Amino acid sequence: MDTLFFIFFGVGAGFVVLSVVLGQAFGASGMDFDTGVASAFKPIIIAMFLTALGGLGLIFNPIFGPFGAWGIGGIGGLGLTFLVLRFVLIPLQRRQNTNTHEKQSMIGKTAKVSETILQGGFGKITYVVNDKIVSGPAKSDNGAGIERNAQVEIVYIEKNTYHVREKV
User: Fold this and answer.
1) Would 138 disulfide with which of 128, 149, 153, 162, CB 3.0-4.6 Å?
2) Nearest to 87, CA basis, from 95, 99, 77, 75
3) Which residues does residue 139 pair with via DSSP β-bridges, in sequence order?
4) Rounded to an integer, what distance in angstroms lies between the CA atom of residue 19 and that of residue 8?
5) Helices 43-84 and 2-29, interaxial angle, to 10°?
6) Under a CB-based contact definition with an 8 Å cutoff, are residues 69 and 1 in contact?
């Protein structure tokens, strides 16, 4: 029975590590596969459940036997995933939706290139809103490169990337 708990723990923990590594790789390229909905059926939530089930099963199997370990692992896994979903992911999702709406109001405003926008690639812009400095990934709307410190106009925002045009 310990073997099955080890497998659940390894699959869950391995998926979390893999998603962090791939998330960094795809995030750097601007690719995004997130649906934008906080759901219990997201792969990271399922991985968290499997990790908790496997870990708790390994801990409680010697004490309560396989049936007790399955019960405690299942209830503990469901409880942990519920708490993370309810108190972390859903509030973060609400916050992100609020920020996205605020970003849309920046279309037509002026920003400054803080990291050179490469030709056909990405860079970074900064701007001030409500006395706060905001920054984000940016791309030229026509694919041209834009040098650092140049003034740009925000043309549109797509998938949290600002598409900008250099001000003349």
Assistant:
1) 162
2) 95
3) 122, 163
4) 16
5) 100
6) yes
164/123 Cα distance (integer angstroms): 10
- Going by pLDDT thresholds of 50, 70 and 90, the confidence category of residue 25 is low
Q: Is the dihedral of CA 25, 27, 30, 34 positive or negative?
A: positive
CA distances from 53 to 27, 119, 167 (A): 30, 48, 56
Residue 137, token pair as written in the block: 């990934």
Q: Are 154 and 119 in contact (CB under 8 A)?
A: no
**CA 9 – CA 60 distance, rounded (Å):** 14
Q: What is the pLDDT of residues 64-118, one digit of tens each?
A: 999 999 999 999 999 999 998 888 878 877 776 555 557 777 888 999 999 999 9
According to DSSP, the residues that pair with 138 across neighbouring strands are 123, 162
Select from 28, 43, 42, 34 the least CA-distant residue to 96.
Answer: 34
**Any idea what the Cα angle at residue 9 is, between residues 11 and 85, rounded to 5°?**
85
Q: Taking the complete model, does pTM exceed 0.90, yes or no?
A: no
